[in-house]
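Bench notes, bay 3.
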Amino acid sequence: MGRWSLLTNHALVLIAVGQRPHSTLREIAQSVGITERAALSILRALEEDGLISRERQGRRNRYWLHYGAILREHREAGLTLLQITELLADIARRA
């Protein structure tokens, strides 16, 4: 059987930002297991899509998740980020 992952790198970056909003790009990349360049590309895409925003604070960025943002992919059926996290939490409670 092939290896697969339930969560994409985009989802893992969202989780990393949510858990540690003051993380550096390097810390985010390391926590996800991707290159800094890939992490930067994902962060930019998430920001462009309105799922996160960032503010420069000194030498670091501070990230915010926008839980009410509508996911644009058809597969998510118009669910908000908050609704998806609640569904995953429900699955975890039942496991």
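Next record in the batch:
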Amino acid sequence: MPTPTLLQQIKNDTKKILRHKLVGIYLHGSFVLGGYNPDFSDLDFLIVVKYNLTKTEKLALMAVVLEKWWPNAPKKGLEFHVMTVKMLQKSPVAAAFDFHFSPLHRRAFLKSPEQFVEAMQGLDPDLPAHLKIIRKKGYVLLGKSTKKTIPYICKENYWRSVCADLQDASVGIRQAPVSTLLNLCRSLAFVKRNLLLGKLAGGRWALQQVSPEFQKIIGQAIIDYQGNPLSLQQNYSEENLQEITVFLLSAIKKAAGENLLFVH
């Protein structure tokens, strides 16, 4: 299914289920940052509501997610948060959410739907980064403009959100090398040039900033990210991956300096 058709489906089904509670639907991630391709991307979006959803509404939403949206989703699936207007107003550091779903949660939901929807709420340190991207570059699927709905996230709070991922980079480079490496690249682009980039654009930007040795690794990560069947682990040794991770983390820390918080 073409992405525009899927988006219309998401819009119509969400309106039907949430009705008067629905404030807006906003896309972020690679769809707005560049590099989106249904053959290797996922689709990220935020649903804003007036009040917390009931268990019945969450179950109804999950029914259309898995029965209607999931079969037509891009290759890496769908990921979304549900936030109330009140939660948005209190979201400078670790934002609260009323509901969340990603491909990682699919098995847990299928195992126990009611238990999943009751437990899936809380704080997500990644949300401030998502909100900043939505406010600046987000695509409005439904609702008012992003600047009228999404609060301003300052540079420091955005960076705290990014650092939640950077803390585990030395581990992530072994478990998810492509994503981790390109995330480091786009983080460096932010602290050096104040650029809000997706993973693919971040990797391409970093190619111009590193030595030829590291260019080969980043170049392969870009190819892998776009659906190359060979994994990065097979193409490069763990030693090389750890070496570029140390280099990029050091460059990020140096660029951040005293102006931005850097989490070790």
